[in-house]
Amino acid sequence: MSAFAFRRTSWRAHASKSSVRAMPLATPYYLIDETALARNLARIDQLRAASGAKCLLALKCFATWSTFAQISPHMDGTTSSSLNEVRLGREKFGGETHAYSVAYSDGEIDDVISHADKIIFNSANQLERFAAKASHLPIGLRVNPGVSHSHFDLADPARPYSRLGETELARIESVMDRVSGFMLHCNCENDSVSAFSALLDQIEERLGALLTRLDWVSLGGGIHFTKEGYPIDQLAARLKAFAEKFGVQVYLEPGDTVVTDTTTLEVSVLDIIENGKPVAIVDSAVEAHMLDLLVYRESANVAPNAGPHSYFVAGKSCLAGDVFGEFSFLAPLAIGDRISLLNAGGIQWSRRTGSMGWACRPSPFAARMAISRPYGPSIMPTTSPAFPEKALILFPLKRCFVPIEKERFDHRCRRCGAGRRL
Questions:
Q1: Measured between alpha carbons, how far is residue 367 from residues 83, 258, 360, 392 in Å?
Q2: d(CA 382, CA 375)
Q3: Which of 264, 209, 213, 193 is nearest to 51 (CA)?
Q4: What's the gap between Cα 68 and its chain centre?
Q5: Cβ proximity of 212 and 17 under 8 Å
Q6: Residue-wise pLDDT tens digits, 192-246
Q7: Could you give the CA distance from residue 6 to residue 245 in angstroms, rounded to a whole number?
Q8: Cross-strand partners of 119
Q9: What whole-number distance in Å separates Cα of residue 111 and Cα of residue 132?
């Protein structure tokens, strides 16, 4: 979605064609452009068809089940990082359901196995401990080849003393008789097909003798092949060559890649103060709604980020560093103006809603709406792209609930009873 930096006039959204009234939307909320999502899904289809690779939605990155009806026809299933995500994939998405966790507990392993088509263990220790329970399933092992592509040490699976996967060949060899596949998750925000190919060359050199003994290999996520201009055909050829060389079914686990450039966080200006520079305070908080900005010390984005009027956009929490970033606007901001913060989906949203599917996971109240969003001629240039005709609106809840309950518009948490109905 081409999201606008801000708008001056108020706007209303219609809940459905059958609705007899318009519902005003109070910020903050997340907005998913379903047309942009369809564009990304078409690129996933292109890669699947050309490479033979299967694509599994990584629920740790994106688990907004209100979109599953649109996404699932273009994917082969889901992969997970916790019990709740395995259940969500099985009950709400369909297709193959792969289970993975950095460490399974005794209290959850039976439930995980009951919902999984494949189970992947992070270590030989965990595999030896639980493999007998999962002997009827294909069993995988996460292997850390010691090489990776990541711009952030925090997200680098090959960082020193990493706990993510087995590294010692002797330990890997000791369980090969019970393993049918490897998980090799080595990429984070890798948007270069040449960098990915070079990484795969190193993996082939280090692990080639083991790869020939497998049935399948998951190369994980972190490959940004839905980015505009990415050479999907080159990636497909490299994946196909890898699969044919070792005689394996290749899996990819896109998450953030599925929703790249589809989602905004919509906020409103509450106050503007001066302290050396103008600061616009909005009705949101970085820690609450875009946590990755704090985790990775990055700035949010707006578009267009151009014009003579510069502002810091900051949240309303008491955290001194609650700042989304410094942006330029075409006209001065005023109280009540809306700001669209780009790329708020994916793992940004997942962290907001209980990253990795922990036991009590907050989730949004969701409504699909046709949007009518007028702009004043003095606020936005006439060349600005149109707002999407179809979108999914997500209203954050303040309390928790597990995302396996009932249908849209009537969710309730089994623990605290929180929920909201349209």
A1: 26, 20, 22, 6
A2: 9
A3: 193
A4: 13
A5: no
A6: 899 999 999 999 999 999 999 999 999 998 889 999 999 999 999 999 999 999 9
A7: 51
A8: 99, 139
A9: 15
